[in-house]
Amino acid sequence: MDYLERSVREYEKEYETLRKYQIMDREDADFGGYYSKDFGVVAENCGGAAAKPMVLYFCQKSRYYKDPEALRCAEGLIEHLINHLHSDGTIDYFACNFHSAPDTAFVALALAKPAKLIDAGTQEEKVLKEKLFYLLKRMGDGMVVEGFHTPNHRWVISAALALIHSLIPDESYLERIGQYLAEGIDCNEDGEFAERSAGGYNEINNRALLILAQELEKTELLEFVRRNLKMMPVFYHTDFSIFTENSKRQDKGTAPYAEKYAYQYLLCGYALKDERLRAIGVSLLKECMENGRRFPLAVEDLMLFPEAFGNLPEPAGRELFEVDRLLKESGLLRLSRKGLNLWAVEGQPSFLFLKKGDIDFYIKGGISFFNCRHLLMENIRADGNGYEMEYEGTGKYYQPFGEYQGTSDWWEMDQAARRTTGHISVKVNVTVTPVEDGYDIRIHTSGCPASTIRFELGVVPNVLIKGGGFRIPASAGGTLIAERGELCLFDGKDTVCIGPAFAANDVINGLFGAVPASGQRFNIFFNDVTNFDRCLSIRVK
């Protein structure tokens, strides 16, 4: 397949839509920008938009090659950006960030690669280049001065400065990049970045580090990219959607597809001569095209680095999804049996997530014990043939100071200095043992008796739930207390069975401060009272 031609067709469709909504009346205050029904006219969006007509104009495979209208469209968008720069060279992210160097960097990244394709052979092309380079220089100067507010911004700003430096050399850009790189790359031994954002910012970090490696010949940065890309199959479902429940960013709970990483697998694999990485990249492209999703390779990347996208290996096989791996530093476990993927996550109420096909459910632990409301599992570790994790909730009572504390205001008192008594605890140990066709989940509790514990299975809607004598279509917000026997989840193709169920009580709502049952899932409850020792069997049938 001609990947360049495929990507060009995508760009052409976007450009044709853009032209319909671009404002080309020079008397209009929004001249050069374009209207979006979701955002109105927003300067920040003009960078990515301008890349499309600019690249198409200089690409011989495009029907808009050397088309004056495409050039005018790009020039208008660039002018709009120039007119909306602050005096310090930054722009705003319209929703929340102002005078934002990181958002300026995202715009600069969208423009700087296409800038490398400009062949200013005509006067009109020279005018475009002059305006674009003026814009990039002002943005670069702004990014040198202003700061950031999330970890990935450091690498995004550095990558943008590196690209601008390759076009408009400036030692201050290199000095600023050096300041950021001196902090060290926030990629742990598992391959995870600080934000743990498999659905979003891992890709952004990788892309930025690839640019820095290319533009500044810092090839040592490629190893961080490789480390992350080798880790990423831990998060892939069999349809290449991405598990995101451990993310610290806004992609948490979403299920984006992994083809956004294809470029990185192919380019990093080529640079490091790692054919395994390239094979995974080919798999992502194949899955994307077979399912009609947007083609993920950018025209400018294909034009600038054609050697990375030729002589590709065969795609990686289905063994790519048969992953058993504990990411100790990241507090995440991934197991796979018979296509049933399991993730265990530390430190949050929903601690087990399982998915096979369209069968998708989590297990959330709730407790009523002093101020403890959720079973926040910690310390996932290997244990014999399985993996163990644990939770300990503690309760205590405060004693009086016995003397005046210099204030009668409760909030001004040093409450941590009070003596405490009556210390008591509840411990919960969960062991996950993989077997040939699924998993055994053992739950053992100890400590204070008579504490109510509930396990909430949040099942994705439209799955059929079958039990002894009943069939229930799972509906959003529905509730079932399972007293005994086995429950089976059926999606029309696959079946996953869970049991035996138990219901020592009918408690489904936690006390004040507890996260309520999901309104987007069908909620099945298994309930008990400490102390108990139970085993759940989860099997693919």
Features:
single chain; 541 residues; alpha+beta; Glycosyltransferase; Beta-galactosidase, Chain A, domain 5; nine-stranded mixed beta sheet; nine-stranded antiparallel beta sheet; 31% helix; globular
Descriptive account of the structure:
The chain is α+β, with helices and mostly antiparallel strands and 541 residues long. The chain has three domains: 1-184, Glycosyltransferase (Alpha/alpha barrel), CATH 1.50.10; 185-321, no CATH class; 325-540, Beta-galactosidase, Chain A, domain 5 (Distorted Sandwich), CATH 2.70.98. The protein has twelve helices and 22 strands. The protein has helices at 3-21, 46-57, 68-83, 101-115, 123-145, 153-167, 171-181, 201-216, 222-231, 262-272, 275-290, 299-304, and strands at 35-36, 40-41, 91-93, 97-100, 325-327, 332-337, 340-345, 350-356, 359-369, 372-374, 378-383, 386-398, 420-435, 438-447, 452-459, 464-467, 470-473, 479-481, 487-490, 495-499, 522-529, 533-540. The strands form four sheets. Strands 5, 6, 7, 8, 9, 10, 15, 18 and 21 form a nine-stranded mixed sheet that branches. A nine-stranded antiparallel sheet has the order 11-12-13-14-22-20-19-16-17, with no helix packed on it. The chain has a two-stranded antiparallel ribbon with strand order 1-2. A hairpin with a 4-residue loop joins strand 7 (340-345) and strand 8. Helix 6 (153-167) packs antiparallel against helix 7, helix 6 (153-167) packs parallel to helix 8 (201-216) and helix 8 runs antiparallel to helix 9 (222-231). It is globular and about 85 Å long. The chain starts with a helix and ends with a strand.
